Amino acid sequence: MLLYVTLGTNDIEQARRFYDIVLPVLGYRRQRYSEEEIGYAADGDTRCRLWVVTPFNRRRASNGNGSMVALHAERRADVDAFHAAALAAGGVDEGAPGLRPFHANFYAAYVRDPDGNKLSAVCETPE
């Protein structure tokens, strides 16, 4: 359903440092970079699926209340690693790794990036 997602940043270099550390844990790598945008994709994907950008209108980026990007994790250990990497890279904890009540195998962690954008990593396979 989704083609790509964009998140706003007020400091493209700080965002690059954060996402370059956090996203490879889940198999996503920086594919594009400029002074205005950074694109990430899984190895072998033909297009960037997550973009971190300075707003086109040049106004300050802001995060949305109730907005979140959930990223797929292959294993629960990947969720754990995502959470640890995000905190080490300057992110803020919004929910430690663990099972959630959405279904028996919904294992997730929640963080905010340095701009306040909320992210989660989710593994839905049993261990």
TrEMBL record:
- InterPro entries membership: Glyas_Bleomycin-R_OHBP_Dase, Glyas_Fos-R_dOase_dom, VOC_core
A Pfam family it matches: Glyoxalase
Give the superkingdom in one word.
Bacteria
Q: Which residues cross the membrane?
A: none
Record-level Gene Ontology MF annotations? lyase activity
Q: Cite the VOC domain residue spans from the record.
A: 1-124
Q: Which Gene3D superfamilies match?
A: 2,3-Dihydroxybiphenyl 1,2-Dioxygenase, domain 1
**Keyword field contains Lyase:** yes
Q: Which PROSITE patterns match?
A: VOC
The protein's name in its UniProt record: Lactoylglutathione lyase
Which species expresses this protein natively?
Answer: Rhizobium grahamii CCGE 502
